[in-house]
Fold this sequence. Notes:
Strand order of the largest sheet: 1-3-2
Shape: globular
Order of helices and strands: HHHHHHEHHHHEEH
Number of helices: 11
Structural class: mainly alpha
Helix content: 55-70%
Amino acid sequence: MTPIEAFIQQAGHGRSLWRPIAGLALILLIWALMLIPVALVFIALYAVISGDPSAALHRVMTISVGGGPIDTMFILGGFSGLWLGVMAAGRWLHRQKFGAFFAPIPRLRPAAFLKGAGLGLACATLSALPVIFLVDDIRPGLEPARLAVFLLPLILLIFIQASAEELVFRGYLLQQLGAWSRHWLVWALLPSLLFGFVHYDPALPDGGGYYYVVAAVLMGLLFAAVVRRSGTLWSSIGLHMAINLFGLTMLGAEGVMSGTQMWLVGKSDLALAMKLDIVSISALLLLVLSPLGRFLGPEVR
C-alpha cells in the first residue's frame, strides 16, 4: 500500500459524495460562528490596550487585509474555527477520529513537519530572488524592531492558519474525495481548485486576482503532492507554514495580507511578482513529483 492510499484509507464512511459536501457546509458554518468569540477576544484585548471599548468595537468592524499587524493577526486567528469544524464533521458525519486526518497512526510527526518546513523555506527564498531582481516597486514595510514585538504571536497564529487550511483541503476533502474516487483529478485537483477559488481577490490590479488564483491552485497541488509522498498531513503543514511565515514577515505583496512584512511589492508590480511566483511554484511541484521528491517519503516504522 502506498503512503497516499494508507492516508485516504482513514476516511470514515467513504464512497458517498453527499457526506463531504454536507461536511464542508458544516465546517464553514462552525467557522463562521467561531468568528464571534474571536472578535470578542480581539475587542477585549484592544479595549484593555487602548482603554476605550467603543474604539475597540469600531476597530474590529474596520478590519482589512492591509491594515497592519493587528488586522493580520485577527484574520489569522479567525481560522481557528476550521479546526473545530473538521473535528465536528469527522465525528458526526464520518465517525472518524480527529487524529486520522493527520496520519494513519495519529501522533506528532516532527521529522515530516521539519522536512516540509525546510522545503518551504527553500522555496520561499528562491521564489523571492527573481522578485527582488526583476521587480522595481519594492518598498519598506514594518520596521524590524516593531516586527519583533509581534513575532511570537504571529508564528503561533500562522501555524493555526496554515494547519487549519491543510486540515480542510488536504485532510478532510482529500481523504473524503479520495475514498469516493482514487483518481488524482478528484482528490488532488478538486480541492486545489476550491483552494484557488477562495483566494480570488478582485481588488488586485492588472489581473492580479486571476494570477493569485492560479498560484493558489498550483500551491494546492503542491501540498497534495507532498501528502502523496509522505502519507501525512504534517509535511504539508510544515511546508504551508514556512511559506506563509516568510511571506508574512519578510517579503509580501501590498494589499494581500500586508502589514507585518519588512518589505512589500507595490501594487504597480504585483502582477509581475505573481507571475514569477507561478513559475517558482510550478518548478517546486515538478521537483516533488520527480524522483528527487522521495526524501519526503514516510518514516520507516
